[in-house]
Amino acid sequence: MDDRIRGDHYRVTDGERAHFLEQGYVHLRGLLTETEVAELETTYDRFLRREIEVPGRDYCDMAGDYGRDPEDYSIINVMLPRRYHPGWRGNVFERRAAAVVEQLCGDGMAIDYDQLLAKQPHRADAVFAWHQDMAYWPDTPDRRTATLWLAIDDSTERNGCMRFVPDTNSEDRLRPHRPQFGDRGESHALGTDLRPDDTPVAVPISRGDVTVHNERVLHGSGGNRTAGFRRAYILAFRSEDTVRIERELGFTHSHNDDGGVLEGVGLEGETR
Ligand SMILES: O=C(O)CCC(=O)C(=O)O
Which of 45, 145, 198, 239 is the most buried (most CB within 10 A)? Predict the structure, then answer.
């Protein structure tokens, strides 16, 4: 076993922490062992086969509108798996992720939401538009955020690994975003255009590795040009205070909530 792992703990180096704080993201190798990933994968695939019920729009396509036939989804998005499968709460990914987040962000952090994003094989259109997560979320005083993106499959440039534009987290203003597939009642995805001087970095990672990013770094991913799935399991942590404020607003990250989409948040013309 990797000497960075001790039970639920995973040791983050000073260099990795500095990379996260300065560039807005970091790649952490071997957060989970093969045995640990394989155990999570069993439940993950039950979600994909729809053996675990996920109601309404919490099972949707992030590369199309809500009306798309599930058989034709390009990026299967399962929102809030721990809500629909309580047996996942407290799993090894949640525990080890919490240890990472404490080292990157300090204490008083909580899971805000979890999510599965699976790109179907041979789907050039399984493109996740360039965005900053903050464009989707309410503004709150405590902006600490760490989103862990766990690779269930090796994630490569050919199957659509994560790409980041380093240091965009330190820009004063959020970029202007717009809905990608109709209005926000018809699909969830928001996107923004790259600027000529943006220099994206592709971050291929192995099964069991994570990338961790903050709420303001610009990121996205390309289509899947391979014969296999590109499966990711995501855990987003924000401060306990922020999560409390979100819930008071009725914002739970469920696409089924009335408060699931905040009108005007992050859209073109808004400055924050
Ligand atoms: O899985 C992807 O390709 C994109 C995920 C993403 O944007 C996120 O987790 O914030």
Answer: 145
Look at residues 222, 166, 194 and name the one whose alpha carbon lies nearest to residue 18.
Answer: 166
Query: In sequence order, which residues have a C-beta less than 8 Å from that of residue 28 and are 6 or more positions away?
Result: 10, 12, 16, 100, 209, 210, 211, 212
Residue with tokens 């202007």: 176
Walk me through the domains of the chain, giving residue ranges and CATH numbers: 5-260 (2.60.120.620)
pLDDT in tens, 26-53: 999 999 999 999 999 999 999 999 999 9
Tell me which residue has its CA closest to atom 1 in ligand 1: 117
Task: Name the least confident of 135-139, 151-155, 216-220.
Answer: 135-139
Spatial distance between the Cα atoms of 214 and 218, rounded to a whole number of angstroms: 9
Cα-to-centroid distance, 147 and ligand 1 (Å) = 9
